[in-house]
Amino acid sequence: MDIAAITKFLAWCTLFNFVLLIYSTVMLVAFQDFVKGVHKRLFKLDDEDMVNEYFRFLANYELFIIVFNIVPYLILRFFF
Fold first, then answer.
1. Which pLDDT tens digit goes with each residue over 47-65?
2. Residue of 74, 80, 78 whose CA lies nearest to 11
3. Cα gap 64→15, rounded to integer Å
4. Where are the domains of the chain?
5. Angle, to 10 degrees, between the axis of helix 3-30 and the axis of helix 47-65?
């Protein structure tokens, strides 16, 4: 695999992950009552704790996208 192929792969991974992040955010907002009901039964959490966990999940996912997709892509794109 050459640098150009890896750069292209990282670009597609970034796009796919951001689409998935936006989809997850929209689904959490649009179906908030349903999602809270399911997670309340599964994990025995109250509403405030679940909202905090949702935000933590979305923030961590965005951070992982930046660290593992965008930063390597930018390094390969501009320095190689």
1. 899 999 999 999 999 999 9
2. 74
3. 13
4. 3-79
5. 160
